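Re: beginner question about structure tokens

> Can someone show what the tokenized structure looks like for a real chain? I only ever see the sequence side.

Sure, here's an example I had lying around. Input first:
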Amino acid sequence: MKSLFYLSEEIQALEAELEREDITDEQRVAFVDAWLATQGDLIVKLDNYAAYIKQLEALSAAREEEARRLAVMAAANQNRANSLRARLKTFLETHGYTRFETVRFKLAVQMNGGKVPIIVPPEWETDPASAPEAFQRREIRLDKNAIRTAIENSDETYGARLGERETSVRIR
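And the corresponding structure tokens:
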């Protein structure tokens, strides 16, 4: 793999060890801890370690972009297949076929399974609150902004409290 960042032989050996499939996450953590604790030029070691992190982040971003590109292509293929399937159904229905056999396939126009669809008044779709209460589902969600405001105003919070901010490493 061609690297975007220069990686020393030492960090390449670390990378090879971390990518082994026969070790656990705990073993990976212990290996990194041991690697960082060993003797050597700490500046060079941390510089190479940060370069390795940046390389992995760049590779991750590239793979996420490729995944998005492939998802768009997959959706386009599925949309085309759905459109062609609908056109085939229209053709078969127009010509009175409920079954048709080709060299490779057996085609059939048949009823879908499952529950019969429910058709509701259009206003219920646009404004579910306009439907009778018996046909509504209530969803309760935690309002963390209200909890934060109560804590900040020293109001009763029933055990809710603010936590501590975590730390992170930034590599620039």
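Each token stands for a local structural state, so reading them left to right follows the chain. Residues 42-94 form the longest helix (53 residues).
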